[in-house]
Amino acid sequence: MTKVPEVLEGPKSFKKTFKQKVMSKNWKKREGVVYSTNDNFDYDTNEPEEIETLAPNQQKLKVFIDRKQRKGKSVCIVAGFVGSQDDLSDLAKKLKSKCGTGGSAKDGEIIIQGEMIDKIMTFLTNEGYNVKRSGG
Known about the structure:
Layout: H1 12-22, E1 60-66, E2 75-79, H2 85-99, E3 103-106, E4 109-113, H3 117-127, E5 130-133
Parallel strand pairs: 1-5
Antiparallel strand pairs: 1-2, 2-4, 3-4
């Protein structure tokens, strides 16, 4: 008969802290190591580093109208934003409220419904961004 190691035996409080250490919420993001007996061991995760948001005068944004794969409906796309997803969504929220339309922010691009390219250009230049119109 095999004996259970002494590390796993002990009071319930130890078992609870042991489970909390081993079975934390980020267990899917760990790389390489399944278990370690070292108390000070820190797991490596493959999370991407957060990108610093550049100042508005250092951003080089391109604004263009797109109709592809949208059933003939036109949207304005603001591309070239360098920064965190939170700052991108904040800028998208300001643009949507300024234009009075819907839209989304993903993959470093802001999509605004409708042909609001002039409003977008004036708003972004007033905010201090370097903006170029692309595609006609």
